[in-house]
Structure formats: structure tokens, C-alpha cells
């Protein structure tokens, strides 16, 4: 089942300036149509409190709500999909568990990872990190513009039509060059929710990508 995937994904995080709910509200007011709720620090009850509130916001503004990991919460709230960060996850098993109607995204750092994700039926993939980021610390190699150019070229050679988004340390100054590599879109967080003005920052990303 082919899913609609937005070109600009906004990812919430634990930050001092705004709660996850406030981040979702401001992003949607700014035109966001894709909210990825990423919280790995709360209990299930706390997660569901956030998710239910964000789901109402997304419903009001016509936005898709994706939850990072926590697939055990499927069916307990109005969640349209899940993004799984574990690059070694069994996506065939996850699809069997969640069903065809749920949007599933996966993460990768390599061409081989993208090929596997496509084979196992994800609806989109986040490829990164592009650059250093404080919102998601990991030891994976930074891809940079050259890494995306090479990977997207090889992906086309394999005739794989998978929506791939650049993620990890992307700033507004990087968007033009990244989009020229052939990627589908951008996933952004800190460059928006830790900016001086979230609405303006989101609008700048949107105008460049869309």
C-alpha cells in the first residue's frame, strides 16, 4: 500500500523551551503536516497523555502523527504511524504486527541499509546523520553532501523508489544543496524548535523544500 509521505518532517524532542505538545502546536500553526513525536524518557501513561493531546492538534490541523518507536502503543491512541530508529529491527515482523494501514519509517546510515529497508517494506527512510547533532547522539559516520549524492545515485541505479529524508544536524543553509542530491525531503528538529522563532524557522524550511 503506497502511503503519502510529506517532504518536511518536524520531530519533537525533550527541550527546555517548549513541551512536546507546545512544539506540535506551534509547528502545526506554522503549516506542518507531519509531526514525529520523539520521546524516550517518559512512562507509557505520560507518553499517551502527550500523544493524545498531540493527536488532537494534528487532527485539527490535518497533520500526520508519527511516533518514534513505542509500537506497543499502537491502537491505544490516534497514531498514523511509527518511526523505528533501530537500524537492525526486523521490519517484516513489525509490519506483520502493525498491519498495512500503519505508516512505518526506518533509519539508515548506508546504502545497504536503505536497500534492506525497502525490501522489508518500509514506507519511507531517514538517512543520516548529515552533520553533528545534539538531539540524537550516535557514533555513525557523518554523511555530508557527498554522502547523500553518492547514496542517492546508487539507489537510483538499483531502481529503488523509496522516499528518503536527510536527517541529523540539518540547518536551513543546508537545504538547497541537500535537495539537489535527489533526496525526497528533510527531517528537522533543533534547527526549528531551538530557533529564536519556531514559526519563522519552520516557514523557512517549508519554503525551500516545498
Task: Report how far apart the termini are.
Answer: 24 Å
Question: Strand order of the main beta sheet, please?
Answer: 1-2-3-4-5-6-7-8
Structural class by secondary-structure content: alpha/beta
By CATH, the architecture is named Alpha-Beta Barrel
Q: How much strand?
A: 15-25%
Figure out the total of helices.
Answer: 8
CATH superfamily: Aldolase class I
How many strands, what sense, and barrel or not for the largest sheet?
8 strands, parallel, barrel
What CATH first level would be assigned?
Answer: Alpha Beta
Number of domains: 1
Number of beta strands: 8
User: What is the CATH fold-level name?
Assistant: TIM Barrel
Whole-angstrom Rg: 16 Å
Poorly predicted parts:
none
Keywords: Thiamine biosynthesis
GO molecular function: thiamine-phosphate diphosphorylase activity
Protein name: Thiamine phosphate synthase
InterPro entries: Aldolase_TIM, ThiamineP_synth_sf, ThiamineP_synth_TenI
Please explain how this structure is put together.
The chain is an alpha/beta fold and 210 residues long. It contains eight helices and eight strands, in the order E-H-E-H-E-E-H-E-H-E-H-E-H-E-H-H. It is globular and about 45 Å long. The model has no long low-confidence stretch (mean pLDDT 96). GO terms for molecular function: thiamine-phosphate diphosphorylase activity.
Amino acid at each position: 500500500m503506497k502511503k503519502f509521505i510529506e517532504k518536511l518532517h518536524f520531530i519533537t524532542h525533550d527541550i527546555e523551551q517548549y513541551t512536546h505538545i507546545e512544539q506540535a502546536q506551534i509547528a502545526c500553526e506554522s503549516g506542518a503536516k507531519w509531526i514525529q513525536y520523539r520521546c524516550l524518557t517518559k512512562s507509557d501513561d505520560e507518553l499517551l497523555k502527550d500523544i493524545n493531546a498531540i493527536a488532537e492538534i494534528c487532527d485539527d490541523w490535518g497533520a500526520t502523527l508519527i511516533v518514534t518507536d513505542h509500537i506497543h502503543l499502537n491502537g491505544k491512541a490516534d497514531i498514523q504511524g511509527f518511526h523505528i530508529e533501530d537500524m537492525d529491527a526486523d521490519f517484516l515482523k513489525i509490519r506483520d504486527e502493525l498491519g498495512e494501514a500503519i505508516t512505518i519509517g526506518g533509519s539508515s546510515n548506508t546504502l545497504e541499509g536503505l536497500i534492506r529497508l525497502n525490501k522489508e517494506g518500509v514506507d519511507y527512510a531517514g538517512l543520516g546523520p548529515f552533520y553533528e547533532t545534539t538531539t540524537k547522539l550516535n557514533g555513525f559516520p557523518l554523511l555530508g553532501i557527498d554522502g547523500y549524492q553518492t547514496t542517492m545515485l546508487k539507489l537510483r541505479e538499483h531502481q529503488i523508489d523509496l522516499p528518503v529524508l536527510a536527517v541529523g544536524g540539518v540547518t536551513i543553509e543546508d537545504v538547497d544543496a541537500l535537495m539537489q542530491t535527489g533526496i525526497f525531503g528533510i527531517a528537522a528538529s533543533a534547527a526549528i524548535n531551538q530557533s529564536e522563532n519556531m514559526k519563522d524557522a519552520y516557514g523557512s524550511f517549508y519554503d525551500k523544500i516545498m
